[in-house]
Write a structure and sequence with these properties.
Layout: H1 6-15, E1 31-36, H2 43-46, E2 54-59, H3 64-78, E3 82-88, H4 98-107, H5 113-120, H6 130-143, E4 153-158, E5 165-167
Parallel strand pairs: 1-2, 1-3, 3-4
Antiparallel strand pairs: 4-5
């Protein structure tokens, strides 16, 4: 297991939990943030959000397509309207292709046809251009029939080098 004492950290967290257990399920700012799982990103902090204010959806690359199910639930059942897509500089998704990752997995399991078939069915979603990936994700959501049209859908890049965000679209 990771070199973290989760139990002790949770005890400290719970001791200062206050009234957080009374927060409503729908986020108070009616906001969904889709961003990358990169451990260097703390979206609540760099966006100035507090607990209970937004849904934060994270996956490799912060891809909208992988977040669609959660966005629909958030909007249709929990009242969110606005969606922020936030990708980031120095993202690992800029460093490989689907074929490179498939080969790496297959090479780690020589002769295992089950692994080969499973990995060949996956699309990992790497992208070669950061700003283009943000624009594509925003366009995907704006054009999707299940995503509500009442709110704003905007795209941003978080700069891991400076901690600043910049609007792309």
């Amino acid at each position: 297991m990771a070199e973290v004492d989760f139990k002790q950290a949770n005890e400290s967290y719970a001791a200062n939990f206050g009234d957080n257990g009374k927060l409503s399920i729908p986020p108070s700012k009616h906001l969904v943030v889709v961003t990358c799982m990169d451990a260097r990103l703390n979206p609540e902090e760099f966006l100035g959000l507090n607990i209970g204010e937004a849904h934060i959806i994270r996956n490799a690359g912060g891809l909208a397509k992988e977040s669609l199910r959660s966005i629909i639930i958030s909007q249709r059942l929990l009242g969110t309207k606005d969606v922020l897509i936030i990708h980031h500089s120095d993202c690992g998704m800029l460093t490989f292709s689907d074929e490179q990752l498939r080969s790496k997995v297959i090479d780690a399991h020589p002769g295992d046809t089950q692994v080969s078939e499973a990995v060949n069915d996956l699309q990992f979603g790497p992208f070669p251009d950061l700003d283009r990936s943000v624009k594509d994700d925003v366009a995907f959501l704006k054009n999707h029939p299940l995503v509500l049209k009442e709110g704003n859908i905007t795209g941003w890049v978080y700069e891991v080098e400076t901690g600043k965000v910049r609007e792309v679209v």
